[in-house]
Each structure stands twice: as C-alpha cells, then as structure tokens.
Amino acid sequence: MTRKGRISVFIPLILFLALLLDGTLAFIFSAHFYTATDIYVPRLILLCLLVFAFYAPRKNMILFSILFGLLYDSYYVGILGIYVALFPLVVYFVDKLKKILNPNFIVLSMLTIIMVSMLEFSVYGFYHMLELTTMDMSLFLAKRLGPTLLLNLLLFFIIYYPLKKSALAIVKD
Amino acid sequence: MNQFFSNKKLIILLISVIICLSLIAFSITGNRNASVVQQFTNDVTALTGRIFSKPANAVMNTIESVDHLMNTYEENQQLKSKIDDLYESGAELAALKEDNKKLKEQLKLESTLSEYSGINGTVIARNPDNWVDQLLIDKGSQNGVEMDMSVMSSNGYIGRIVEVSPTSSKVQLVTTADQNISRVAAQITTDKGPVHGIISGYDAEKNQLILNQITVDAELEKGDTVTTSGLGGVSPSSLFIGEIEEVQLDAHGLAQEAYISPAADIDDVRFVTVVKRNAESGE
User: Fold this and answer.
1) Which residues in A lie closer than 8 A to residue B9 (C-beta atoms)?
2) ipTM for this model
3) B14 within domain boundaries
4) Are residues B138 and B83 in the same domain?
5) A3-28 vs B36-70: helix axis angle to the nearest 10?
6) Which chain B residue lies closest to A127 (C-alpha atoms)?
7) Which residue range is the domain that position B153 belongs to?
8) Degrees to nearest 5, angle at CA B258 with B252 and B264
9) pLDDT tens-digit series, residues B71-102
C-alpha cells in the first residue's frame, strides 16, 4: 500500500478504535472512574491525535480531527459542536509545535499534560456556558482536572510505544 | 478593514467559530430526536462498539461469578432466612393479583398506570467525559424503544431515553446535572397513603437523589419507599426508585425536601430494561 493509502486507512481506523475504547473504558470502570470525589476521563482519542499529528501531514490530520470530533459529539452526547471545535485545535497546535520540538517520550508526555488540560478547560467552558453544569472552578480543578491528567498520563505511558511504532510504520516512504 | 479581511486564517477561524456555535444551538434547541444522518452514524458506530463491549461484558461476568462464588456461603445463610418470608408474600401476591384482576373486570378498566412491558438491553458505552451522564444501549426503535421511556437497571429506576436510533439509543441517567430534563414525578408510600414529589437533582457527594416539592403536612420517615408515580405522563407507576434517607425543609421553607438513596447502583450499570407503559399517555 502506498504511503497516502496507509495514512488514509490506518490512521482513521486507529482513531475510531480509540474513540470506541474511550466509551468502553468509561463503562467498564464507571464505578472507579466516576466517584463522588474524583472523575477520571479517558481521552485515548486525544492521545492518538496528538501522536499522529507529529508524523502525518497537517491536511489529513485536520480533516480526521474534524470527522472524529463530529462522531464523538454525535455518538456520546448528541450536542454537536464541542469536540468538533476542539480536536482540530489540538491538531493545529501540535502541528505548529512539531517544527521546534522533537517527538520523544518526555516531550510527548509534556504535550499530553498541556493538551489534556486545554481540552478539559475548554469542554468545561462549553458546558458552563450552556448551563449544563453548576460545578465551580476550584471544584473542577480538584475533582476533574487532576484525576483526568493522572489517568491520561498513565494511558499515554501504556500506549506510547505501540502508537509511535505504528505512526512510523504508517508514514514511512 | 481591507487588511482585516485579507487575513485568511482569521476568516477561517471566524467561520469555524460561527459554524460550531450554530451547530451547538441547532442540536440543543432543534428537533428533539437526532437527524437521520446522525442516527445512522450512531448506529454504525454502536454496531462496531459491540466489538469491545461484548468481550468486556463477558470478562466482567466471569469476574463477577467468581466473586459470587466466594461469597456463596454467607449469601446462602442470608437468603435462607429470607426465603420463608418470600413464600408467604408470594402466596399473598398471587391472591392479591387475582383480586385485582376481578376488581378491574368489574370496573371495566383496560390498563392502569402500573402496567408495563419491558425491553431488555445491554450497555455498549458510557459518555467518557461524564458532564452529561449518558449510556448507550443496544436496543433502538426497531425493538420498540421510544423517546422518554423509563429505564431500569436490575433493582431500580436509573433514567430515561433521550435519543433513539434504529438499533441503539441513549439513556440519560437521573444523576445528570441537567436539572431541566432529568425530572421525574415520584411518589412516596407512607402509612397514611401516597405523598407526591418531584425528583429534581442529585447530590454527588452523598450519592443521593433529591426529591422536592413535597407538602409540609406529609410525615415522612427514613426508609419510606419512593417509586415513580406515573403522573409525569410517560413512565408507568410503581417503578422502584429508592428509600428515603433524610427529610428537611427546602430553602424557602414552603415545601419539604427528601434525600433518597437510589436502589439501583447507578455507577455500575451493565444491563438495563427499557420500560414501556401500557396505558396511553394523556398527550
């Protein structure tokens, strides 16, 4: 398969699986992830977008992020327009950064922290604006952001190596 | 002005912001059920989602059965003590059912609020970000699921259907923070007859539902059972919600407010029953 073919087949496939896995993880571990004191939000799809954005061309990644943002919105909540705005932003930022950063383990884990926080803050902003939540900022920081960062960093440690290998295999000439 | 519009990036940004905001506005205020395109994509995604949820469920069932095996002895002791009661109440129930049937025939009642039929479903996924507490289940309009139907887990009421596609649908749990749509007409069974109220919130810290708009005269006790009243129009009556934990006056002092510990384990739902009421709603 050509490089172009691999990019337009395997990257969407992996993103799709990540999206489904997010929902499945949330449902299997719902008793542990969503407690009264902590909320752990799995964000595998964001981690995949983050890593792929380093290797795949920008045009493809922006397109995929829009498509999967739409799917995420439609499949999980039914309010279109939240993730479809945020996923491309993440890809755009990573794309800007990839000229000055080298995608090694440390840099990518730092970026995970930054991007997950950015995403969580913006989603919180959206839901606050839509008045679908009454949670205040300090509670959000303690209850959601902290645990979510922890969980996603852990998930990143697990998937970093296979994800990087597959990304390299997909984009090689 | 000219320079402003020549900036291509800014224009793209502006247009995408406008598109996103109008999408949000459209999906919040628009037609209550999702569009056909959305239903189709959701169905296809849900279909593939089962690749993960089926094995996950199988593994969890195995773990659970091992867990059950460990507790068998203790459980057996407890159950033995309960079983005599159960026989008695079973016989009583049969007699009451017979009575009920005869009385209904005399009154020429065709269907009452308490009659319902159930559709069993399995959970495929849960909304990961949890801002809106929603589950995705594997039954849709082809199986008879309709908008607003009540959903029960094994032991109690957990929420209602908010979106229906042909082979999958979304359940919004009672624990969701969205006050406007998670309201449930409820009824408390007391010694002096039923008392009505509305479930309109959830206290995440205590893991308790909040039932308010109860008249001040009502005397409620801890342990009183709360069920749906069927007066909300869609759900049948007598679906078990939970038991009262605490009663107090509300913020204005005009009504009472009760905290209910839900009977269903809302944090760990894997199998659900979608409840279809037999009586026609008044709408």
Assistant:
1) none
2) 0.86
3) no
4) no
5) 50
6) B131
7) 31-70+117-278
8) 145
9) 888 888 888 888 888 999 999 999 999 998 88
